[in-house]
């Protein structure tokens, strides 16, 4: 049932990470429940991974069971889509596009699965997953008797790059969601998606493995008004989805572009990306994360908050 000593770096978008003592890819909720019950019998902890596109896996691996829900049900319901947690974001975008459904163009070029996107309320270009989520079905595994929970959008407590599922710290596993779209024109949807993909290739270091943005952008209210009113600062403020100063700007101004730690590097192209340029380890990445947090705090007096998850 379980794969033993599974090399997690083989499924990581970052190509970093040690082995999982046990690994199981589940295709439905029944398989998830059976796997969890088996883990409880063995007395080992359970960890959940989705698309593994924003999770830094420790070099020492995971001493427990890693479950990867690979539920891929997909159903068109007029202007809505019921979709399983394991469906890749790019597939969801393409399939919604062919149905002339608009609302996910902002996600073009974003890796990972629908489950991870909901979990972290992924967003870009001023839009977020919460804008299209109608309801989410999850499995509560915090008790010995797992139970299925259905939540409407407001009950998911979506916030900037956060949700009730993220706050549960693995206590719930997202199974599927119903997403609502607007009627659109396939050509316009395609043009918008292609524009966003081109932007990412132009601005982001797509040539190397990364976890995307390492840190969340910083709300303007966390800075004093005198700083915010500076002309050079006004120019960099972005709406994402409310007024923010990009973490990339702060990192660049702290003089950290291009700094390396063995195989990991703060990207000169987009310094909020820490890229794996040469068989980097998680320890290399953590050194750069600590450096960035310390230097940005020293220069600007703000504490950057990670936009990535850790698994160890």
Can you describe this structure?
By secondary structure, this protein is α+β, with helices and mostly antiparallel strands. The chain folds into three domains: 3-69, Uridine Diphospho-n-acetylenolpyruvylglucosamine Reductase, domain 2 (2-Layer Sandwich), CATH 3.30.43.10; 74-188, 2-Layer Sandwich (Uridine Diphospho-n-acetylenolpyruvylglucosamine Reductase, domain 3), CATH 3.30.465.10; 206-311, UDP-N-acetylenolpyruvoylglucosamine reductase, C-terminal domain (Uridine Diphospho-n-acetylenolpyruvylglucosamine Reductase, domain 1), CATH 3.90.78.10. It contains nine helices and 21 strands. It has helices at 29-42, 89-98, 114-119, 164-167, 186-203, 225-228, 231-234, 247-253, 282-300; strands spanning 3-7, 19-26, 46-48, 55-57, 62-69, 74-77, 80-84, 101-102, 123-124, 127-128, 133-140, 147-152, 172-180, 182-183, 218-219, 238-239, 243-245, 260-261, 264-266, 274-276, 309-311. Strands 6-7-13-11-12 form a five-stranded antiparallel sheet. The chain has a four-stranded mixed sheet with strand order 1-2-5-3, covered by helices on one side. Strands 15-17-16 form a three-stranded antiparallel sheet. The mean pLDDT is 95.
């Amino acid at each position: 049932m379980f794969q033993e000593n599974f090399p997690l770096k083989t499924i990581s978008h970052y190509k970093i990470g040690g082995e999982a003592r046990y690994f199981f890819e589940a295709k439905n909720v029944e398989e998830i429940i059976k796997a969890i019950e088996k883990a409880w019998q063995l007395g080992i902890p359970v960890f959940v991974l989705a698309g593994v596109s924003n999770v830094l896996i420790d070099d020492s691996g995971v001493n427990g069971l890693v479950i990867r829900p690979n539920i891929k049900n997909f159903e068109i319901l007029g202007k809505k889509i019921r979709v399983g947690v394991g469906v890749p974001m790019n597939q969801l975008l393409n399939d919604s596009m062919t149905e002339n459904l608009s609302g996910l163009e902002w996600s073009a070029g974003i890796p990972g699965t629908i489950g991870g996107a909901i979990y972290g309320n992924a967003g870009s270009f001023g839009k977020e997953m919460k804008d299209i989520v109608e309801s989410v079905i999850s499995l509560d595994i915090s008790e010995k008797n797992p139970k299925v929970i259905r939540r409407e959008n407001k009950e998911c407590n979506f916030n900037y790059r956060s949700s009730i599922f993220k706050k549960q710290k693995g206590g719930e596993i997202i199974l599927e969601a119903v997403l609502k779209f607007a009627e659109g024109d396939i050509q316009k949807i395609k043009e918008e998606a292609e524009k966003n993909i081109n932007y990412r290739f132009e601005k982001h270091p797509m040539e190397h493995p990364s976890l995307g943005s390492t840190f969340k952008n910083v709300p303007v209210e966390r800075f004093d008004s005198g700083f915010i009113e500076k002309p050079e600062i006004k120019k960099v403020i972005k709406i994402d989805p409310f007024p923010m100063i990009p973490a990339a700007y702060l990192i660049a101004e702290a003089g950290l572009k291009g700094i390396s730690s063995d195989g990991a590097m703060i990207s000169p192209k987009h310094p909020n990306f820490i890229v794996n340029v040469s068989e980097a380890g998680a320890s290399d990445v953590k050194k750069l994360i600590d450096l960035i947090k310390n230097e940005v705090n020293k220069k600007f007096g703000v504490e950057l908050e990670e936009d990535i998850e850790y698994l160890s």
